[in-house]
Please model this.
Amino acid sequence: MPARTTATPTRQRILDATNQLFYAQGIRATSADRIIEEVGITKVTFYRHFRSKNDLVVAYLQAQAQQESSWFSCLRDPKDPARSLDAIAAGIGAASCSPGFRGCAFINAAAEYSEAGDPVREVIDAHRAWMLGEFASIASDAGAQEPQAVARQFMMLRDGAMVNGYLGEPQELTGALKRGFDAVLAAAIA
Model:
């Protein structure tokens, strides 16, 4: 009797294809039909898992948020905030300058979904609020007087690095981001 292979669940296959296509081509530019074709399923199967393309976009961004949260958590060292920032800068530098990099999935999605109250926008806003909270925690761990203000500055540096990744080298980007983080932190705890 041949061994049974475990197939990746259909929902996950859809999300995997979505991740590739949405990120490479844009969300609105990628039709549900294109994803259905890529996965090799029927429309009925697709809509059994996702009632609408908007539901798929929400699931895609939630998966992105979970990945980023896991990555960020691995880098955080509450006892050494400067080291945390260095690790974040190195990770952003490496990712931003890697082949196929097309920017931050959340910034890209925000450009396509600008309407407040849209479920997609709510996921974007929740993720950005989470990230600001993480940066505020790092600033607080370092003894910053105004951790929320420092967090916004860290976020601006992070967002700029994500955009700059198209143009620079990983080492240059990492170094510049580290210096930016260090300067903001030094001013905040002086």
